[in-house]
Amino acid sequence: MSQVIALAGKGGTGKTTTAALLIRYLTETGRTPILAVDADPNANLNELLGLQVEVTLGEIKDELRSSVPDNMARGDFIEMRLNEAIIETDDFDLLVMGQPEGPGCYCAAHSFLSQALEKLLKNYAYVITDNEAGMEHLSRMNLRKINKLLIVSDASSRGVMTAGRIAELIKPLQLDVKEIWLLVNRAPQEIPEVLDDYVKQVCHEKGMTFLGYLKESPEIFEAEINRQSLLELPDNTPVIKEAGQLFEKLLKGA
Asked: How many domains does the chain have?
């Protein structure tokens, strides 16, 4: 069975960076094969992984309206284009949701992603999904079962509060989420006691397991400014070591 790890959180917390670091750690520890899914309409996970995107699911969804050949069954066309959309590497594959070009509700594209994922899951040990900012992706249910929901917050009370609100959505939306974790990203070297107390309080009240603090990293900042893949950072980079310890805790479970 595939282990599905979904990332959530408000915009600007570093979800995509966290997803890229997690994919790197999974490959380095031999937890393959991996399917990375960029489910954010503003897709940029591929940049942090050093990959070029040729076809997205949003584009395929638009093609279904008018581009299916007369001599080809709709199902065969979808399977063919889906295989073309998967970006393959030696260690992991990437599938990008993208933004549909035509008019219409974006919810339909999320439904298409859900159907596509359902067919793909059996081929991978881990599925890592980088979702759009906020909570909308949960209500659209682009994943039916999530083993671990990793909510990423910045080191602010507002960010932690938003993380707690996301955790609250699980029950009313009837999502099948086994574990809910909180990661406080871009944290200062010295954690203020008032922040640490608030993090523990929110985790206790909202049923989240606190994963830990990932410190602010000048190496990450420089890599992103230079549009450099995070896979190219040296193994001895402090944030790489720190993230690895946190991810091992996540993978072993609460």
From this structure: 1
